[in-house]
Amino acid sequence: MTDDKALAAPKAQQPQRKPQARSLERRRAILDATRKLLETNTVSEISLYQVAEKAEIPPSSVYHFFPKVDALLNTLVKEVFAEFDTILDQPLKVENIGHWSDIMRQIQARYIDYYQQHQYARDLILGQHIVSAIHHADYLHDEQLGCRIRHFHEQFYQLPPLPEEYNIFAIALQIADKVYSISHQEFGNITDTMAQEGINACLAYLRQYLPENMCLQNN
Protein backbone atom coordinates (compact mmCIF):
# COMPACT_ATOMS: atom_id res chain seq x y z
CA MET A 1 0.00 0.00 0.00
CA THR A 2 1.37 3.41 -0.97
CA ASP A 3 2.37 5.63 1.89
CA ASP A 4 0.32 8.82 1.49
CA LYS A 5 2.89 10.74 3.52
CA ALA A 6 5.64 9.69 1.13
CA LEU A 7 3.67 11.01 -1.83
CA ALA A 8 2.88 14.33 -0.20
CA ALA A 9 4.89 17.12 -1.74
CA PRO A 10 7.06 19.03 0.72
CA LYS A 11 5.56 22.35 1.68
CA ALA A 12 7.27 25.28 0.07
CA GLN A 13 8.80 27.72 2.52
CA GLN A 14 6.48 30.64 2.91
CA PRO A 15 8.08 33.97 1.95
CA GLN A 16 8.33 36.53 4.72
CA ARG A 17 5.29 38.76 4.68
CA LYS A 18 5.73 42.41 3.85
CA PRO A 19 3.94 45.04 5.94
CA GLN A 20 0.31 45.05 4.99
CA ALA A 21 -0.87 47.83 2.74
CA ARG A 22 -3.61 48.66 5.20
CA SER A 23 -1.08 49.27 7.96
CA LEU A 24 1.01 51.51 5.71
CA GLU A 25 -2.08 53.45 4.71
CA ARG A 26 -3.07 53.99 8.33
CA ARG A 27 0.42 55.12 9.27
CA ARG A 28 0.39 57.57 6.37
CA ALA A 29 -3.06 58.81 7.38
CA ILE A 30 -1.80 59.45 10.92
CA LEU A 31 1.16 61.49 9.71
CA ASP A 32 -0.96 63.45 7.22
CA ALA A 33 -3.54 64.19 9.92
CA THR A 34 -0.80 65.49 12.20
CA ARG A 35 0.46 67.80 9.48
CA LYS A 36 -3.06 69.20 9.05
CA LEU A 37 -3.51 69.68 12.79
CA LEU A 38 -0.25 71.62 12.96
CA GLU A 39 -1.72 74.09 10.49
CA THR A 40 -4.02 75.35 13.26
CA ASN A 41 -2.43 74.07 16.49
CA THR A 42 0.99 74.39 18.09
CA VAL A 43 3.15 71.35 18.83
CA SER A 44 2.25 71.53 22.53
CA GLU A 45 -1.48 71.39 21.75
CA ILE A 46 -1.40 68.16 19.75
CA SER A 47 -2.76 64.97 21.34
CA LEU A 48 -3.03 61.44 19.97
CA TYR A 49 -6.81 61.57 20.38
CA GLN A 50 -6.92 64.66 18.17
CA VAL A 51 -4.84 62.88 15.58
CA ALA A 52 -7.11 59.83 15.67
CA GLU A 53 -10.19 61.99 15.20
CA LYS A 54 -8.59 63.92 12.34
CA ALA A 55 -7.43 60.72 10.64
CA GLU A 56 -10.84 59.09 11.27
CA ILE A 57 -9.30 55.96 12.76
CA PRO A 58 -9.54 54.42 16.25
CA PRO A 59 -7.19 55.89 18.90
CA SER A 60 -5.87 52.35 19.49
CA SER A 61 -4.49 52.35 15.95
CA VAL A 62 -2.61 55.58 16.58
CA TYR A 63 -1.17 54.17 19.81
CA HIS A 64 -0.12 51.04 17.93
CA PHE A 65 2.10 53.05 15.59
CA PHE A 66 3.01 55.93 17.90
CA PRO A 67 2.70 55.24 21.66
CA LYS A 68 3.51 58.88 22.46
CA VAL A 69 3.09 62.23 20.76
CA ASP A 70 6.86 62.71 20.79
CA ALA A 71 7.33 59.54 18.71
CA LEU A 72 4.83 60.86 16.18
CA LEU A 73 6.47 64.28 15.99
CA ASN A 74 9.94 62.77 15.68
CA THR A 75 8.79 60.70 12.70
CA LEU A 76 7.25 63.76 11.10
CA VAL A 77 10.47 65.71 11.63
CA LYS A 78 12.43 62.97 9.88
CA GLU A 79 10.15 63.42 6.88
CA VAL A 80 10.81 67.17 6.96
CA PHE A 81 14.55 66.49 7.04
CA ALA A 82 14.19 64.16 4.05
CA GLU A 83 12.43 66.98 2.20
CA PHE A 84 15.26 69.34 3.19
CA ASP A 85 17.72 66.86 1.67
CA THR A 86 15.69 66.70 -1.52
CA ILE A 87 15.74 70.49 -1.73
CA LEU A 88 19.52 70.46 -1.45
CA ASP A 89 19.75 67.75 -4.12
CA GLN A 90 18.51 70.22 -6.71
CA PRO A 91 21.43 71.53 -8.81
CA LEU A 92 22.58 75.07 -8.28
CA LYS A 93 22.03 77.62 -11.03
CA VAL A 94 25.65 78.04 -12.01
CA GLU A 95 24.89 81.02 -14.23
CA ASN A 96 23.71 82.94 -11.15
CA ILE A 97 26.88 82.38 -9.13
CA GLY A 98 29.20 85.37 -9.44
CA HIS A 99 30.30 85.45 -5.80
CA TRP A 100 30.56 82.81 -3.08
CA SER A 101 27.63 84.39 -1.23
CA ASP A 102 25.36 83.54 -4.18
CA ILE A 103 25.58 79.85 -3.25
CA MET A 104 24.08 80.41 0.20
CA ARG A 105 21.54 82.86 -1.22
CA GLN A 106 20.24 80.20 -3.60
CA ILE A 107 20.07 77.56 -0.88
CA GLN A 108 18.38 79.84 1.64
CA ALA A 109 15.83 80.98 -0.96
CA ARG A 110 14.79 77.35 -1.42
CA TYR A 111 14.38 76.72 2.30
CA ILE A 112 12.51 79.97 2.82
CA ASP A 113 10.07 79.02 0.07
CA TYR A 114 9.57 75.59 1.68
CA TYR A 115 9.00 77.07 5.13
CA GLN A 116 6.55 79.65 3.82
CA GLN A 117 4.43 76.93 2.20
CA HIS A 118 4.47 74.45 5.10
CA GLN A 119 3.25 75.68 8.46
CA TYR A 120 3.72 72.28 10.11
CA ALA A 121 7.44 72.43 9.22
CA ARG A 122 7.73 75.94 10.63
CA ASP A 123 6.08 74.92 13.87
CA LEU A 124 8.16 71.76 14.21
CA ILE A 125 11.53 73.35 13.45
CA LEU A 126 11.04 77.05 14.19
CA GLY A 127 8.21 77.00 16.75
CA GLN A 128 8.43 78.19 20.32
CA HIS A 129 7.48 74.84 21.88
CA ILE A 130 10.12 72.64 20.28
CA VAL A 131 10.58 69.21 21.87
CA SER A 132 14.18 68.81 23.07
CA ALA A 133 14.67 65.65 21.01
CA ILE A 134 13.56 67.52 17.88
CA HIS A 135 15.89 70.40 18.68
CA HIS A 136 18.82 67.98 19.00
CA ALA A 137 17.86 66.15 15.80
CA ASP A 138 17.68 69.48 13.97
CA TYR A 139 21.17 70.37 15.22
CA LEU A 140 22.58 67.05 13.97
CA HIS A 141 20.86 67.40 10.61
CA ASP A 142 22.22 70.92 10.20
CA GLU A 143 25.68 69.42 10.63
CA GLN A 144 25.02 67.11 7.69
CA LEU A 145 23.61 69.90 5.56
CA GLY A 146 26.57 72.10 6.50
CA CYS A 147 29.01 69.50 5.17
CA ARG A 148 27.14 69.35 1.88
CA ILE A 149 27.02 73.14 1.58
CA ARG A 150 30.76 73.34 2.23
CA HIS A 151 31.25 70.86 -0.62
CA PHE A 152 29.22 73.12 -2.91
CA HIS A 153 31.55 76.02 -2.10
CA GLU A 154 34.61 73.85 -2.66
CA GLN A 155 33.37 72.98 -6.14
CA PHE A 156 33.60 76.63 -7.16
CA TYR A 157 36.16 78.28 -4.87
CA GLN A 158 39.44 77.58 -3.13
CA LEU A 159 38.41 77.94 0.51
CA PRO A 160 40.85 79.25 3.09
CA PRO A 161 41.74 77.09 6.13
CA LEU A 162 38.58 76.73 8.21
CA PRO A 163 38.04 75.66 11.84
CA GLU A 164 38.11 71.90 12.28
CA GLU A 165 36.21 71.73 15.56
CA TYR A 166 32.98 73.13 14.12
CA ASN A 167 31.29 73.57 10.76
CA ILE A 168 30.79 77.24 9.89
CA PHE A 169 28.19 76.42 7.24
CA ALA A 170 26.07 74.49 9.75
CA ILE A 171 26.27 77.42 12.16
CA ALA A 172 25.26 79.78 9.35
CA LEU A 173 22.14 77.67 8.78
CA GLN A 174 21.30 77.83 12.48
CA ILE A 175 21.75 81.61 12.53
CA ALA A 176 19.35 82.02 9.61
CA ASP A 177 16.84 79.66 11.26
CA LYS A 178 16.92 81.75 14.42
CA VAL A 179 15.83 84.81 12.45
CA TYR A 180 13.14 82.79 10.67
CA SER A 181 11.97 81.49 14.05
CA ILE A 182 11.51 85.05 15.32
CA SER A 183 9.47 85.87 12.22
CA HIS A 184 7.33 82.74 12.57
CA GLN A 185 6.57 83.48 16.21
CA GLU A 186 5.87 87.17 15.64
CA PHE A 187 4.03 87.08 12.31
CA GLY A 188 2.98 83.45 11.82
CA ASN A 189 5.24 83.03 8.81
CA ILE A 190 8.59 84.14 7.38
CA THR A 191 7.98 87.60 5.98
CA ASP A 192 9.99 88.81 3.00
CA THR A 193 11.78 91.32 5.22
CA MET A 194 12.76 88.72 7.81
CA ALA A 195 13.74 86.28 5.06
CA GLN A 196 16.27 88.82 3.82
CA GLU A 197 17.42 89.46 7.39
CA GLY A 198 18.04 85.74 7.88
CA ILE A 199 20.15 85.59 4.73
CA ASN A 200 22.04 88.73 5.75
CA ALA A 201 22.74 87.30 9.20
CA CYS A 202 24.14 84.00 7.95
CA LEU A 203 26.29 85.73 5.31
CA ALA A 204 27.62 88.21 7.87
CA TYR A 205 28.77 85.25 9.97
CA LEU A 206 30.39 83.49 7.01
CA ARG A 207 32.29 86.67 6.11
CA GLN A 208 34.22 86.25 9.35
CA TYR A 209 35.88 83.23 7.71
CA LEU A 210 35.51 83.67 3.95
CA PRO A 211 37.23 86.57 2.18
CA GLU A 212 35.18 88.67 -0.21
CA ASN A 213 37.31 87.64 -3.16
CA MET A 214 38.17 83.96 -3.27
CA CYS A 215 40.06 82.24 -6.05
CA LEU A 216 38.00 80.12 -8.38
CA GLN A 217 38.74 76.44 -8.68
CA ASN A 218 40.66 75.51 -11.81
CA ASN A 219 38.30 73.62 -14.09
From TrEMBL:
Keyword match DNA-binding: yes
Chain residues forming the annotated DNA-binding region: 47-66
Stretches for region Disordered: 1-23
HTH tetR-type domain: residues covered: 24-84
Biased composition (Low complexity): 8-22
Superkingdom field: Bacteria
InterPro entries xrefs: Homeodomain-like_sf (IPR009057), HTH_TetR (IPR001647)
Keyword Lipid biosynthesis: no
UniProt keyword terms in alphabetical order: DNA-binding
This protein's name: TetR/AcrR family transcriptional regulator
Annotated source species: Endozoicomonas gorgoniicola
